[in-house]
Specification:
The complex is a heterodimer of chains A (about 200) and B (about 130). With about 200 residues, chain A is α/β, with parallel strands linked by helices. Chain A contains three helices and ten strands; from the N terminus they run E-E-H-E-H-E-E-E-H-E-E-E-E. In chain A, the strands form two sheets. In chain A, strands 5-4-3-6-7-8 form a six-stranded mixed beta sheet, sandwiched between helices. In chain A, strands 1-2-10-9 form a four-stranded antiparallel beta sheet. In chain A, helix 1 crosses helix 2. Chain B is built from four helices and six strands; from the N terminus they run H-H-E-E-E-E-E-H-E-H. The chains are: A alpha/beta (about 200), B alpha+beta (about 130).
């Protein structure tokens, strides 16, 4: 399976020629399912009687969130945020910083909030989200991430309480992860390979 | 005649973004696109940063003259972390790694992290940056 380079915003027919391909399976759907069930059990034990609010960041976390929610038997709530994407031109001239494109639909003061992330690497995005949500005085704030790259961390003091898999420094696609908005629906997590020039 | 490296440097220094989280008093003079893009990513996320605020002396001669020093590219005060960006070939990174080991030995309380070419490429892929590599 081949894929075009990152060219968000362009309709498919206008995208440049492929220089990536979808590689081998890194985590199968069965492996993902088994770990998500374990995480759901852990959350259920830790938050028993507290009805946590699971906050997912759109869009890559959605598949993980829906599986995690079904694997978490205790009562809990769901909500979503979306952050403005970073792109070329940011910081040149009319500077724009990171911001919420879609805010929470619920109040979080006094509530137990669990941020659901697809991946944490530098920690810059999660750091922003934690800073933003802490201003609203949640009862507690923690994070769960499906994938973790702790060796790439720039921000260390993050409340990452649950980690699905610590992964190598590869690009992944499938199970919610996209390549130019495609392939989020693949049930397995695949490595992305760059084609030789 | 302007060298290729000189042309790249001129292009980088010509761009002077209006940084919001930069803590320095003088405009930073980045030496390559990777440094500039890292600065933009930090700034975009509202993480306070400084550019080359401190030089660490690694070796002096008998008369106290500096023989070797190291100036990390970025300092993130909230993380108390120095960040060195490299887009060098592997052979040159080895020399830089040796310097970093020396720095860690002489300044054990200083946290410094080296961001390799691959890390920069990951940032570029994650944030859709256009960084020549």
């Amino acid at each position: 399976m081949r894929h075009g380079p990152l060219a968000a915003g362009l309709p498919p027919r206008d995208r440049p020629l492929p220089d990536y391909r979808i590689g081998e399976i890194y985590l199968s759907s069965a492996e993902l399912r088994a770990r998500v069930v374990e995480l759901g059990d852990e959350i259920s034990r830790d938050y028993d009687g507290r009805e946590p609010l699971l906050v997912a960041t759109l869009k890559a976390s959605v598949v993980f969130l829906t599986d995690l929610s079904r694997a978490t038997p205790i009562p809990h709530w769901l909500d979503f945020v979306e952050l403005a994407g970073y792109g070329p031109g940011v910081g040149t001239g009319g500077h724009t910083g990171i911001r919420l494109l879609k805010d929470l639909g619920s109040e979080i003061a006094g509530r137990d909030v669990l941020i659901v992330e697809d991946v944490v690497d530098t920690g810059l995005t999660l750091n922003y989200l934690c800073r933003t949500l802490r201003l609203r005085s949640p009862g507690s704030l923690a994070a769960i991430t499906l994938l973790d790259r702790p060796y790439r961390r720039l921000v260390d003091d993050l409340p990452v309480r649950y980690v699905g898999f610590t992964v190598p420094d590869e690009l992944f696609v499938g199970y919610g992860f996209d390549l130019d908005e495609r392939y989020r629906n693949l049930p397995d997590l695949h490595v992305v390979r760059r084609l030789a020039a | 005649m302007v060298s290729e490296a000189g042309a790249i440097l001129a292009a980088v220094t010509l761009e002077t973004p209006d940084f919001q989280a930069y803590l320095g008093t003088r405009p930073p003079r980045f030496v390559n696109d990777a440094e500039l893009e890292c600065a933009k990513v930090l700034d975009y996320h509202g993480v306070p940063w400084d550019y080359e605020p401190r030089t660490f002396v690694l070796e002096r001669d008998d008369e106290g003259r500096v023989l070797e020093a190291f100036t990390p590219d970025f300092f993130l005060p909230e993380q108390e972390l120095y960040l060195e960006i490299t887009v060098m070939k592997q052979s040159l990174v080895t020399r830089k790694n040796r310097k970093l080991r020396k720095l860690r030995r002489l300044y054990p309380d200083v946290r410094v992290k080296l961001f390799y070419k691959r890390d920069i490429e990951r940032l570029a892929e994650r944030y859709h940056l256009d960084i020549a590599s």
